[in-house]
Amino acid sequence: MDPQDAVDLGREALMMATLVAAPVLLSGMIVGLLVGLIQALTQIQEQTVAFVPKLIAMVLALAYALPWILTRLLDYAEGLIRNIPNTL
After folding, report:
1. For 1-88, where are the alpha helices, taking DSSP H only?
2. Helix/strand/coil for 8
3. Distance (Å) of CA 62 to CA 13, 17, 86
4. How far apart are CA 86 and CA 84, in angstroms?
5. Minimal CA–CA distance to 57: which of 24, 86, 84?
6. What is the pLDDT of residues 20-66, one digit of tens each?
């Protein structure tokens, strides 16, 4: 295995991690932005008001996207395992 192969494997792993984490992180970001906007408009500056809706939204997003996430991870792992003889 040459260094370029190792760089490519690392880049693919980072892209997969970003892709898999995106639905949960985006839902938390959007809900956090909306809650922050509501807090700014109503001048309620309580930290727990922002935490609970983000937590609920992220759990729901994870529950909804979990089949897709597992499929992507299984495909990636299968591709890695199948390429072991080619990289040695």
Report:
1. 3-42, 47-82, 84-87
2. helix
3. 20, 14, 35
4. 5
5. 24
6. 999 999 999 999 999 999 988 988 888 788 899 999 999 999 999 99
